[in-house]
């Protein structure tokens, strides 16, 4: 009997030890009492394809503080914090992503910013959040200014466009560094695949994707979606000096059409990848309108390729900004994949033979190149 009791005690000790090893605590505080007495939820999503979030734990915010606990079944995963369920949050609810891993994770909600720390991976991930906080602050200032041209120079003497480019580079680097270091766990994988959302502020380049995949172990590299992605990034992308590659798109009436239909017969064609939500794209439209009106009668054509998810937003933008040229939609993202479009606006200039002669020209540079081709 004593022997059996000893074995049960031993098993219980082992089980508690395993639980402690996989246990995590999330401790947080708010610098304002806006959400005092509200319920904050810690949630997870089981896969990128999942349609809903699973609640891990929840608690009432008291004295502007909260504390929740949980345990992992294995590797680190992404967790999501929100006041109210993430699908139906409280008005102006702060939300953040954290890395769920063993240890005590500390979260601080300030008026506009969020910081996380306390465990190794959250200390790493906080670099992403710091940059995202900067992005949020910039766009708040831009909204107040009403127009990108009304934005003053910052302390470094950069105008609004230069500030956007710098923030984009910072966010890309922070995401890339975290993903590369964590591609072998679910947290890194989640951030990796979420970075390919068309409307995302950050999208990885072909070279960065190759570098991330090279850092993955054999288990990750043998995942079907990783294998598909690796095959895609190793594909030869049409570059300057090569012919354009045909692709199926959708026109504004919803019919499936081939890009070649709108390229053949032109002396010069500009393919313009854009979206209604892309400020730099919209700001470039007056230059495109000028070039189109100047050179259309001489054999110049523009094919706009929208990457909008919202069909109505696409149509409205075409009408609002008087974009009278051909408009197609990249609804399957096939064109973006073929031409390795990692950021927009992205332009491709073709000659009469459909050969790519230049990429990503804007303003006067673009107009000069068109004039050179048509002379």
Automatic annotation (TrEMBL):
This protein's GO CC annotations: cell envelope
UniProt name for this protein: Peroxiredoxin
InterPro entries in alphabetical order: AhpC/TSA (IPR000866), DUF4369 (IPR025380), Thioredoxin-like_sf (IPR036249), Thioredoxin_domain (IPR013766), Thioredoxin_ResA/DsbE_sf (IPR050553)
Gene Ontology MF term list: antioxidant activity; oxidoreductase activity
Signal peptide, first to last residue: 1-23
Keywords in alphabetical order: Cytochrome c-type biogenesis, Disulfide bond, Redox-active center, Signal
A Pfam family matched in the record: DUF4369
Organism: Dysgonomonas hofstadii
Gene Ontology terms describing biological process: cytochrome complex assembly
Subcellular location(s) per record: Cell envelope
Residues in Thioredoxin domain copies: 238-375
Coiled-coil ranges from the UniProt annotation: none
């Amino acid at each position: 009997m004593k022997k059996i009791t000893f074995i049960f005690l031993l098993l219980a000790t082992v089980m508690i030890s395993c639980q402690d090893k996989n246990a995590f605590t999330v401790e947080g505080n708010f610098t304002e009492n806006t959400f005092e007495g509200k319920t904050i939820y810690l949630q997870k999503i089981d896969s990128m394809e999942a349609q809903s979030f699973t609640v891990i734990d929840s608690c009432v915010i008291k004295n502007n503080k909260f504390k929740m606990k949980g345990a992992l079944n294995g590797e680190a995963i992404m967790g999501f914090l929100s006041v109210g369920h993430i699908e139906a949050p409280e008005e102006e609810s702060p939300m953040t992503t954290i890395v769920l891993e063993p240890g005590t994770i500390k979260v601080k909600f300030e008026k506009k910013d969020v910081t996380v720390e306390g465990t190794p991976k959250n200390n790493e991930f906080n670099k992403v959040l710091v940059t995202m906080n900067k992005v949020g602050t910039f766009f708040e200032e831009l909204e107040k200014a009403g127009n990108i041209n009304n934005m003053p120079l910052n302390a470094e003497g950069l105008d609004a466009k230069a500030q956007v480019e710098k923030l984009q580079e910072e966010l890309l680097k922070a995401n890339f560094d975290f993903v590369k270091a964590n591609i072998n766990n679910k947290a890194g994988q989640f951030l990796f695949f979420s970075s390919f959302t068309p409307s995302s502020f950050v999208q990885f380049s072909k070279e960065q994707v190759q570098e991330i995949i090279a850092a993955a172990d054999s288990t990750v590299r043998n995942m079907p979606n990783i294998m598909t992605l690796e095959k895609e990034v190793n594909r030869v992308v049409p570059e300057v000096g090569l012919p354009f590659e045909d692709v199926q798109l959708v026109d504004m009436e919803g019919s499936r059409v081939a890009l070649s239909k709108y390229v053949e017969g032109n002396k010069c064609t500009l393919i313009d990848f854009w979206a209604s939500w892309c400020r730099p794209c919209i700001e470039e439209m007056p230059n495109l309108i000028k070039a189109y009106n100047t050179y259309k009668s001489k054999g110049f054509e523009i094919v706009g390729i929208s990457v909008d998810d919202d069909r109505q937003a696409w149509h409205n933008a075409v009408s609002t900004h008087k974009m009278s040229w051909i408009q197609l939609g990249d609804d399957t993202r096939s064109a973006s994949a073929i031409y390795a479009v990692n950021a927009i606006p992205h332009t491709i200039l073709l000659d009469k033979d459909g050969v790519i002669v230049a990429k990503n020209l804007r303003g006067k540079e673009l107009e000069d190149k068109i004039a050179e081709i048509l002379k």
